[in-house]
Amino acid sequence: MATGYVELLRARHAVRLLAGTLVGRLPNATAALAIVLFTRAEGGGYTLAGVLSAVYGLSNAVGQPLLGRAVDLWGQPRVMLPSALLSGLGMAVFALVGIDPLPLAHATMVVAGFFTPPLEGGLRALWPSVLGRSDRVHAAYALDAVAQEVLFTVGPLVVTVLVAFRSEAAALLVINVLGVVGALSVVVSPPSRLWRSAPREAHWLGALRSGGLRSLLGAFFFVGLALGSIAVAAVAYADDRGDGLISSYLLSALGAGALVGGVVYGARGWAGEPETRLRVLVAALAAGYLPLALVPAPATMTVLAGVAGLFLAPALACAFVVVDRHAPTGTVTEAFSWLVTAFGVGAAAGTAVVGPVVEHGGTAAGFCVAGAGGLTALLVLLATRRVLTAPAAPRSGDALGRVETDDTGSVESGSGTGFRA
């Protein structure tokens, strides 16, 4: 199992791109926690902290696909480095000025969120040109999904340590400096500098003119909703048992399940069309969420949470392949960024919806929201089966993009031919 991943990571630039992207995404992965901790330290209430965090999240949801489109048009370095600097500057002003005056605090959240560089979509656009072979790209997508789980587990821990040893403001500043360094590491690398998107057809909808992509985004909005609701329902479950640590056990088990599932999924090749496989994986994901509504004893609940997480990373990895297949020519970074947005907005909606549900219907009802989200995601994929079918023919130069020659005239990577699963 490990051999395939070792071979992947031995590919030139692979470790640098993966590590740089993960470090560059630290500000986004830790923003919700860091903003709340800083706002509370400045004397603000939870309501203000929640509003500021929501402003950041909504601005990020708007900015990702727009910046992704800009990357497809003008290349990664010209977009990602300036946006990383602007995002870091916005958060730095917030850390140095605080929450007073409020209009400035809100403005900094808009800037920091909107200009978060689309490193996630950018990395997925680079993998085909760096790795070449389709089996390696599939494994890279799975490794990417696993890395996300690690990032969202380790990131909050880093913030907590920085707060304990220094301050909330220092945590904001350090995390965002690291984010800029990570983005810089990616955009000065040869694959990022030489990568160019395939020529695109001018259309105001951009990547969204693909019916298959719209179907996928609709489904993963509800997958995000399910995950967002589980986070809140887990806290309610812990409160019912009188032990706040139980929620961390459940969420850790969910993440551990995703890690295991992603590693196993990416370690082997899969026959058949990924669109069909995605429906199976989302069905398994929904089936894993449903038993959580039984709310058994903590030990059993922790096991169920681990099982529920098993199919998350595989579903994400398969979705990355499907996005690549259905993104219109020249829109691959934008398309991946739309998936990030759909998933994030769904998670935010889940946290908003499940609160009143728990208050009126109890903890079991909160976990029912997660099950309903998973089932709805499956229904979307089934209802849109006709548009989410295999592309009729490969589009030359699409996912792989074009790779320019360096100063010596040699080609750094890639062949300029389209990659298709």
Automatic annotation (TrEMBL):
<feature type="domain" description="Major facilitator superfamily (MFS) profile">
    <location>
        <begin position="212"/>
        <end position="421"/>
    </location>
</feature>
<dbReference type="GO" id="GO:0022857">
    <property type="term" value="F:transmembrane transporter activity"/>
</dbReference>
<feature type="transmembrane region" description="Helical">
    <location>
        <begin position="45"/>
        <end position="67"/>
    </location>
</feature>
<feature type="transmembrane region" description="Helical">
    <location>
        <begin position="335"/>
        <end position="358"/>
    </location>
</feature>
<dbReference type="InterPro" id="IPR011701">
    <property type="entry name" value="MFS"/>
</dbReference>
<feature type="transmembrane region" description="Helical">
    <location>
        <begin position="171"/>
        <end position="195"/>
    </location>
</feature>
<keyword id="KW-0472">Membrane</keyword>
<feature type="transmembrane region" description="Helical">
    <location>
        <begin position="216"/>
        <end position="238"/>
    </location>
</feature>
<dbReference type="Pfam" id="PF07690">
    <property type="entry name" value="MFS_1"/>
</dbReference>
<feature type="transmembrane region" description="Helical">
    <location>
        <begin position="364"/>
        <end position="383"/>
    </location>
</feature>
<keyword id="KW-0812">Transmembrane</keyword>
<dbReference type="InterPro" id="IPR036259">
    <property type="entry name" value="MFS_trans_sf"/>
</dbReference>
<feature type="transmembrane region" description="Helical">
    <location>
        <begin position="303"/>
        <end position="323"/>
    </location>
</feature>
<feature type="transmembrane region" description="Helical">
    <location>
        <begin position="278"/>
        <end position="297"/>
    </location>
</feature>
<feature type="transmembrane region" description="Helical">
    <location>
        <begin position="17"/>
        <end position="39"/>
    </location>
</feature>
<feature type="region of interest" description="Disordered">
    <location>
        <begin position="398"/>
        <end position="421"/>
    </location>
</feature>
<dbReference type="GO" id="GO:0005886">
    <property type="term" value="C:plasma membrane"/>
</dbReference>
<dbReference type="InterPro" id="IPR020846">
    <property type="entry name" value="MFS_dom"/>
</dbReference>
<keyword id="KW-1133">Transmembrane helix</keyword>
<feature type="transmembrane region" description="Helical">
    <location>
        <begin position="79"/>
        <end position="99"/>
    </location>
</feature>
<feature type="transmembrane region" description="Helical">
    <location>
        <begin position="244"/>
        <end position="266"/>
    </location>
</feature>
<protein>
    <submittedName>
        <fullName>MFS transporter</fullName>
    </submittedName>
</protein>
